[in-house]
Amino acid sequence: MAADSRLRVQSIEGITQVEFIDRNILDEANIQAIGDEISELIDRADVPNLLLSFSNVDHLSSAALGALITINNKVKDKGGSLRLANIDPQIYEVFMITRLNKLFDIHETTDDALKAFA
């Protein structure tokens, strides 16, 4: 990953865990950079199993939600799976309002999400 990465990435037993460094994922350039970085991870994997942890995130913009949908589609196109975890209750509310909680596989904790890959 690049030195100016907005992500903390680790691979555990074939699952790529991505943690966002920023508390607020709001501005367009940042969202673009994060989207590109995650796309690279997906492109590198034969079958991408991706876990996105939102433990540090307090705010997400609608553009960030759009980027998540794109990421989800890319992962599915390669036969992989995407799990989201540690979403702040206020952010989760946005997922519910937009019905994205139906689209994404969301777990309360990283551990729960990791178990769901098994």
**Low-confidence spans: pLDDT under 50, at least 5 residues?**
none
Order of helices and strands: EEEHEEHEHHEH
Determine Rg (CA atoms, Å): 13 Å
- The overall pLDDT average reads 94
Note the beta-strand portion.
Answer: 15-25%
| Straight-line N-to-C gap | 27 Å
Q: Kindly report the name of the CATH homologous superfamily.
A: STAS domain
Major β-sheet strand ordering? 1-2-4-6-7
The overall number of domains is 1
Query: Roughly what percent helix?
Result: 40-55%
Name of the CATH architecture: 2-Layer Sandwich
Number of helices: 5
- Secondary-structure content class: alpha/beta
Broad CATH class: Alpha Beta
Described by the principal axes of the CA atoms, the overall outline is: globular
